[in-house]
Amino acid sequence: MQDSRDVERELAQSLKKLAVEKPFEKITIKQIADGAGVIRVTFYNHFQDKYELLEWIITTELLEPIQPLIKAGMVTESMVLMFTNIEKDKKFYAKAVKLEGPVTFHSIAMKCARKFLLDIIDEHATGKSKHEWLTPDVIATYYAQSMCFVTEGWIEQGMTIPAREMAEAYNYIITRSMVDVLNEV
Question: Is the pLDDT assigned to residue 1 strictly greater than 60?
Answer without folding.
Answer: no
